[in-house]
Amino acid sequence: MPAALASLKTGLGFDVHAFAEGRKLILGGVDIPHDRGLLGHSDADVLAHAISDALLGAVRGGDIGKLFPDTDPVYKDADSLKLLAAVAEFVRSCGFEILDVDSVIAAQAPKLSPYRDAMRENLARAMGVAVESVGVKATTTEWLGFEGREEGISARAVCLVCRCSGQER
Length: 169
Ligand SMILES: Nc1ccn([C@@H]2O[C@H](COP(=O)(O)O)[C@@H](O)[C@H]2O)c(=O)n1
Ligand SMILES: C[C@@]1(CO)OP(=O)(O)OP(=O)(O)OC[C@H]1O
Description:
The protein is α+β, with helices and mostly antiparallel strands. It has a single domain, classed as CATH 3.30.1330.50. The chain is built from 6 helices and 7 strands; from the N terminus they run αββββαααβαβαβ. It has helices at residues 3-6, 46-58, 64-67, 80-93, 116-127, 145-148, and strands at 8-20, 26-27, 30-31, 37-38, 96-106, 137-139, 152-163. Strands 4-1-7-5-6 form a 5-stranded mixed β-sheet. It has a two-stranded antiparallel sheet with strand order 2-3. Strand 5, helix 5 (116-127) and strand 6 form a beta-alpha-beta unit. It is globular and about 45 Å long. It binds the ligand Nc1ccn([C@@H]2O[C@H](COP(=O)(O)O)[C@@H](O)[C@H]2O)c(=O)n1 and 2C-methyl-D-erythritol 2,4-cyclodiphosphate (CDI). The site of the ligand Nc1ccn([C@@H]2O[C@H](COP(=O)(O)O)[C@@H](O)[C@H]2O)c(=O)n1 has 7 residues, from strand 6. Ligand L45E5XJ5 is lined by residues 107, 111-113, 138-140. GO terms for molecular function: 2-C-methyl-D-erythritol 2,4-cyclodiphosphate synthase activity. Pathway: Isoprenoid biosynthesis; isopentenyl diphosphate biosynthesis via DXP pathway; isopentenyl diphosphate from 1-deoxy-D-xylulose 5-phosphate: step 4/6. A divalent metal cation binds at residues 15, 17, 49.
């Protein structure tokens, strides 16, 4: 196998947060108007968390809770884009470059497509990659499951990273 191919790693991330009254709905760093927000120790940005876990998975770096424990008051109401930026730095410190990220949010409501590009721009900036390297999609679950009952939102993400130091790209 060519060395460049041998240095590619994939990552998968998944996260869920429940809706709660009196919380902001922050997705991909965008404050989205809605009657409820997501509950969490941090700002509960389920999309930023799924992408963080995908990146950590790719470099076998554990998961978001290992890096930023939800028992640590430092992360109370934390801006998850800042956590994602720290994860991206950790990925680079392991010798990997972030090549590509794709994601999907499962939410019955609200309609998320108007915020897609703002989310992509925020996430790309946080990770230090081009906006073209970041995909964000949304789907309902056709009223099925906890997302369909509007009890919460889930997000899934995949990424591709490359150990590029000293190798041809
Ligand atoms: N919260 C959501 C969910 C979906 N979308 C957009 O609607 C399209 C159709 O969704 P289905 O679940 O009915 O397949 C989807 O492809 C998204 O473009 C959305 O914006 N916000
Ligand atoms: C992000 C962290 C930060 O303490 O808290 P939560 O907002 O509860 O989010 P979760 O997805 O449960 O991940 C754990 C934590 O790392």
